[in-house]
Inverse folding.
């Protein structure tokens, strides 16, 4: 029997526990604070990165810096094949971008198209410097012609479809405090 996103009986195989995530995000916040310092605008890519960004910002506070935050909602959809995927702007940022030092924050880097689109868009709007931070990196999944690598990575992610800590499967599972793979129970 196939599982579906709304299935109450599905179980989740944990890949990154709540404790693993808390520890790693705290370290990442300190690293970013040390390297990028103040006057930083975080741009969280919605919806997937809202949980990660909230924790990351607070770890940056503990490291003594005062980042600002804005949000950009992007959607990527396929018209059948992987390579025909396009990224669309659903909601743009509202803060001034010109001359700003920006760190884009996303949940997961896969083909690289989402990050590539966001970065290009911000440079076109006059950003000074745009860095990339992702919680999860599915290395080896980048598509040809998209030269995106993240400056800050939480965890290398196995090539499986993961949910939790903001990541969804058809709008479900974002509330999980850990990250895992949905399985039949
Ligand atoms: P990319 O544009 O191919 O790099 O994919 C990035 C986007 O695809 C992320 O922002 C996620 O929304 C989504 N995505 C990729 N892999 C997963 C996954 O394993 N679980 C949930 N969402 C994913
Ligand atoms: Mg996303």
């Amino acid at each position: 029997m196939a599982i579906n996103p709304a299935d109450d009986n599905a179980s989740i195989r944990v890949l990154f526990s709540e404790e693993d995530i808390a520890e790693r995000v705290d370290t990442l916040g300190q690293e970013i604070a040390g390297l990028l310092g103040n006057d930083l605008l975080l741009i969280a890519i919605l919806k997937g990165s809202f949980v990660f960004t909230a924790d990351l910002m607070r770890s940056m506070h503990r490291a003594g810096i005062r980042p600002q935050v804005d949000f950009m909602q992007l959607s990527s959809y396929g018209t059948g094949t992987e390579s025909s995927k396009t990224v669309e702007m659903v909601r743009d940022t509202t803060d001034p971008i010109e001359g700003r030092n920006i760190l884009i924050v996303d949940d997961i880097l896969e083909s690289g198209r989402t990050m590539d689109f966001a970065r290009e868009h911000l440079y076109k709007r006059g950003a000074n410097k745009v860095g990339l931070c992702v919680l999860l990196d599915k290395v080896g999944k980048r598509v040809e012609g998209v030269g995106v690598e993240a400056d800050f990575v939480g965890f290398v992610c196995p090539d499986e479809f993961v949910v939790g800590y903001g990541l969804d499967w058809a709008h479900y599972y974002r509330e999980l405090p850990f990250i895992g793979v949905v399985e039949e129970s």
Summary: DSSP finds three helices and eight strands in the chain. The chain has one domain: 21-161. The first strand starts at residue 11 and ends at 16.
